[in-house]
Write a structure and sequence with these properties.
The complex is a heterodimer of chains A (about 210) and B (about 575).
Chain A: E1 2-11, E2 14-24, E3 29-33, H1 40-48, E4 55-63, E5 66-67, E6 78-81, H2 93-100, H3 107-120, H4 136-149, E7 154-158, H5 166-182, E8 187-191, H6 194-200, E9 204-206
Parallel strand pairs in A: 3-8, 3-9, 6-7, 7-8
Antiparallel strand pairs in A: 1-2, 1-4, 4-5
Helix pairs in contact in A: 2-4, 4-5
Chain B: H1 6-30, E1 33-34, E2 39-40, H2 45-52, H3 56-88, H4 96-114, H5 117-128, H6 133-142, H7 160-181, H8 187-196, H9 201-230, H10 233-238, H11 246-255, H12 261-298, H13 308-335, E3 337-339, E4 349-350, H14 353-357, H15 359-393, H16 400-411, H17 414-427, H18 434-459, H19 463-470, H20 475-486, H21 488-504, H22 507-512, H23 520-528, H24 533-561
Antiparallel strand pairs in B: 1-2, 3-4
Classes of the chains: A alpha/beta (about 210), B mainly alpha (about 575).
Chain lengths: ~210, ~575
Amino acid sequence: MLKLENISLKIDGNPLFSKLNLEVNAGQVKTVMGPSGCGKSSLLAHLCGTLPSVFQTSGKIILHEKTLDDLPPHERKLGILFQDDLLFPHLSVGENLAFALPAKIRRHERHDKIEQALEEIELSGMHERDPASLSGGQRARVALMRTLLAQPVALLLDEPFSKLDQELRGRFRKLVFAHAVKNRLPTLLVTHDHADAQAAGGDIIAL
Amino acid sequence: MRLLPAFPFLTQLLFLLPIAAGLFGVLLPALGYLPDLGGDKFHFEVFRQLLEHPALPHAVWLTLFSGIAATFISLSLAIFLATMLSRTSLSGNKNNRMASLFVIVRRGLIPLIAVPHAAMALGLAFLVAPSGWLVRWFSFLLMGWETPPEWVTVQDPFGLSLILGLVLKETPYLLLMILAALPQIRAQEYIRIGQSLGYGNLRSWLKLVLPQVYPLIRLPVFAVLAFSLSVVDVALILGPSTPPTLSVLILRWIDNPDLSFRFLASAGAVLLLLLTLGALLFWRVSEWLLLQKWRNWLSNGKRGNRNEAQKLAALSGLLLLGTAFLSVLGLAFWSLSLRWPYPYVLPQRWTSRNWERHWTSIQETSFTTLELGVIAVLIALILVVGCLENEQWRRVSFSFRSQWLLYLPLLIPQATFLLGIQILAVRLEMDGTFLLLVWSHLLFVLPYIFLTLADPWRNLDTRFPQIGQCLGASPLRVLFRIKLPLLLKPLLVAAAVGFAVSVSQYLPTLFAGGGRFATLTTEAVSYAAGADRRVIGVYGFLQALFPWIALLLALAIPRWRFRNRATLL
């Protein structure tokens, strides 16, 4: 379970929002909605621990009974998807996936896991491909799979559907939520799009 | 990661310590205090001696004249070229032939910057000498001059060839600095606004862009001024010798077997520092006065729509490039010639003998040059990357003060603080050590690496390292697996620039190396005094070749490495 307790965000002393309380259970999706500039992306950055120091924060982030606030970003085990796929342009498709896979998984198993993952997103045989040569929909799927391969315990979605066209958008949305449920991940979506919020199905919190 | 705050601190220490020590080390003997040579009392006697020295007035005049003139011409030319070069990137340029000329000029700039000052000066010396290449071409084409004309060009008493040599190197440098600063002030949008109000391209540039861009390039301009006032290698090759510029005069006093001349040299070095500070102040005051006088001109409404300026700019740009490349080509030809008497345009007989005869020495000096450059560049890269990482992780930005600090070694005359360092090093028995030599190169390599790398580093999409962290990668892994590979090209270009700077260092190698380390530059300059152009050709050409190879590698490696990565090509 992902739990936010009294989270407040200020930038240079001006409050963006204050005392946000929120609980997301395993396999559940909750949506935070608000216009751009309301601090919803900053909220996710704060959860990840990558918020610039011009922001002042207070409150508590609790994931499965553990407080995250003092952990460095790479130890928080929060998977995040952004508007842009942000596939590393210097790595191949397969290498992008392998980057996320924990190091304790060794050689053969590693290789198998990645092939399996590629198959799951219908990209078998694309291991060596340049991410730039994929279509938008394919890249979005690789980004999702990369996030999942890092074995996160919660999923954060920072408007990951907004740059896809209508048809892709519906399909990708379904895929993401299906994986969230399958892996029993507490999932927090931030968006300004009502259709996205509706599709998520869960509670909607306005900022 | 906890070590990160140490990087800026270490870097500043590395900078301030030798500069402070150097100034201190030169001030004491200038005031008569140098116990090793029997000076144990402070007095102004040395300065009195210096001021009464017969060569001094002329040397001071020559130094100020050549330094300020070279900076003024370089800056004017760079601004003039920038008005035209920045335009070709604007879409909808109809004048295609002109545009392609400007593209050539712009591309040619980069290799030009990599050529060490000394190599350029040696090449230029042959090009413009009375029996040099230009005269030979003229006499070949026009059937004149059976014997070389009796002009004095190289080492002329007014320092004109010295000025030309400096302009050849500093114009491209300032031009690149201007071009790099333009996006910061969104110059193209201002030019469009100017043009829509009916101002010509040149006027739009001068009235709208220049006032904004100048503050951004003031530090580089100051660096050029300080460098031109205190340059030694170019002045030795192209400057007048009786009397020479002040920096060369100081070098002569140091080389004097009578060690008591060191007092005089130190006083000279202090005077050089004062002259440089004075010239910088003079420049700054002149800027202000010009602004007062021309303020009205900015808004007087005169629009000026003539286009002759464009042709003139293209011509001067090509002339500059042509002179520079012919200079280096001349060195290559000489190094391969067996006999090349006046008035032949090409060598009568070609040979590889010049290279073979000096092969052992070439290998040794090449290796020292390479070793020194690579080590200095590696240390500088580690420090710069550490500082930039610190800035990003701790989100503190490198302040304006630190920027000045980085430029400090470029603003203080080399001859001044390097002489001080040498005097102190002799006392501490550190002189002529490789460590000190690397350190002295680092002082000049590091600022250029920082200036080249800082913008690409800061402009990297921060979401890449962020997402790397969220995927569970530690900051160190993010650095090595994501940031460094993504920034491979700017990293290598910065390394190549740093290497070129190291290769071109003359005075640091001479002073900090205590004469024990011969690099391509020290060899080239020391042969310059002799008359054998073939040997000069060998070392001068090699000196130009090394930075070119580094630059070529810096451009080729990322292309090969990322041949299958469309976004990074």
